């Protein structure tokens, strides 16, 4: 489901539907770029309230928090609490990213369009960087998992998308898929009927992107590239890709040599889903003239991408991968249901 897009003709309602009333600092901004949100109750007319029990931090933010906390789960939990307490949302100031949340609908404002029902278990699909949130406690942090058990409350504005938890897919798996569902939907939309697709990164988003390329193309060569040899081996063995290459994506010339040595031609579409920075140059270098690069990673530096392409004299279309698509995760969940190789690798 989605919150309905606000009717810009009715300016009186726009602020409420976008959650502007929750912005504390600076006044007049929208919730995502705001420094601080008001996450206090009660529920307001253009939003619904969720009793949150799980956060799924985006990979870039989770990696950052783990690194600055030395992998200590107690310190990681404290850092998460600090961020939410200071900002009224889970908006990592280092990575400028957040994640999504899971919980139970507790109250619905009178003006919400097509709301969930009180008692429904849902996933909040709008970024936590724009979702008012307060935490009573961080219950469990696993340094190897971006899913964090918490007790808290979130307020989802009317314009923000959300999705129901499916009955036939386990909670952890469903949240992983919802967190990166846009990678599948965007890849399916952008992939050519015949051609070469590179997927940079073999995590959850990468696996979905590979499966979507296979699903949507008549003839495809799918190339997976990652620095993690085991991850590449798994997706290659599962059949999600045709060519698997182990390479350091932060070394663009070395990585290009590795993919060429593996027999991979230049790509028509390159999907960037790595959580590491400084991978923009290789993604551009690996894409053929007139091809497309989809940056679906919060570690992307968009000025680096633009200026690198400029310096190379390389004409590629570069797209920002929004986390939202109109199917609101339905396509990605369907891929998991009907793709045995994807189900198997998701269990890793």
Please provide a brief summary of the model.
This protein is α/β, with parallel strands linked by helices and 348 residues long. The chain contains twelve helices and 14 strands.
Question: What does this molecule look like?
Answer:
The chain is of the alpha/beta class and 348 residues long. It folds into two domains: 159 residues, no CATH class; 166 residues, Rossmann fold. The chain has twelve helices and 14 strands. The protein has a six-stranded antiparallel β-sheet with strand order 6-7-3-4-5-8. The protein has a six-stranded parallel β-sheet with strand order 11-10-9-12-13-14, with helices on both faces. A two-stranded antiparallel sheet has the order 1-2. Strand 12, helix 9 and strand 13 form a beta-alpha-beta unit. Helix 5 crosses helix 11. The longest helix has 15 residues. The protein is globular and about 60 Å long.
Q: In CATH, what is the homologous superfamily of the largest domain?
A: NAD(P)-binding Rossmann-like Domain
Number of E-type strands: 14
CATH class division of the largest domain:
Alpha Beta
The succession of helices and strands, N to C, reads HEEEHHEEEEEHHEHEHEHEHEHEHH
Biggest β-sheet description: 6 strands, antiparallel
State mean pLDDT (0 to 100 scale).
Answer: 93
The amount of beta strand, in percent, is 25-35%
Just name the CATH architecture of the largest domain: 3-Layer(aba) Sandwich
Radius of gyration over all CA atoms, rounded: 20 Å
**Secondary-structure-derived class:** alpha/beta
Helical stretch count? 12
Strand order of the largest sheet: 6-7-3-4-5-8
Beginning-to-end CA distance, first to last residue: 29 Å
Amount of helix: 25-40%
Global morphology: globular
- State the domain count: 2
Which segments are poorly predicted (pLDDT under 50) over 5 or more consecutive residues?
A: none
The CATH topology label of the largest domain is Rossmann fold
């Amino acid at each position: 489901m989605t919150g309905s897009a606000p009717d810009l003709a009715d300016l009186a309602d726009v602020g409420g539907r976008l959650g502007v009333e929750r912005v504390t600092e600076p006044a007049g901004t929208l919730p995502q770029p705001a420094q601080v949100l008001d996450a206090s109750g009660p529920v307001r007319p253009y939003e619904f309230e969720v009793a949150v029990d799980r956060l799924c931090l985006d990979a870039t933010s989770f990696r950052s928090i783990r690194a600055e906390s030395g992998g200590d789960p107690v310190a990681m939990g404290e850092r998460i609490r600090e961020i939410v307490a200071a900002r009224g949302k889970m908006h990592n100031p280092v990575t400028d990213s957040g994640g999504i949340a899971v919980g139970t609908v507790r109250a619905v404002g009178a003006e919400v369009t097509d709301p969930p029902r009180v008692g429904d278990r849902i996933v909040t699909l709008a970024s936590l960087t724009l979702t008012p949130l307060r935490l009573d406690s961080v219950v469990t942090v696993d340094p190897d998992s971006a899913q964090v058990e918490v007790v808290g409350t979130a307020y989802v504005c009317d314009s923000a998308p959300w999705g129901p938890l499916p009955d036939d897919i386990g909670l952890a798996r469903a949240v992983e898929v919802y967190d990166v569902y846009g990678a599948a939907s965007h890849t399916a939309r952008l992939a050519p009927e015949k051609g070469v697709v590179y997927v940079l990164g073999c995590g959850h988003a990468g696996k979905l992107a590979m499966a979507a390329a296979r699903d949507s193309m008549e003839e495809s060569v799918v190339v997976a590239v990652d620095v993690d040899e085991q991850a590449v081996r798994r997706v290659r063995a599962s059949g999600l890709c045709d060519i698997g290459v182990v390479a350091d994506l932060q070394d663009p010339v070395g990585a290009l040599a590795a993919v060429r040595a593996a027999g991979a031609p230049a790509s028509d579409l390159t999907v960037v889903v790595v959580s590491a920075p400084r991978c923009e140059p290789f993604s551009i270098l690996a894409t053929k003239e007139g091809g497309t690069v989809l940056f679906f990673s919060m570690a992307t530096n968009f000025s680096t991408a633009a200026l690198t392409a400029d310096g190379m004299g390389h004409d590629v279309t570069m797209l920002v991968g929004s986390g939202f698509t109109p199917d609101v995760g339905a396509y990605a969940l369907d891929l998991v249901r009907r793709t045995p190789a994807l189900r198997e690798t998701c269990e890793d």
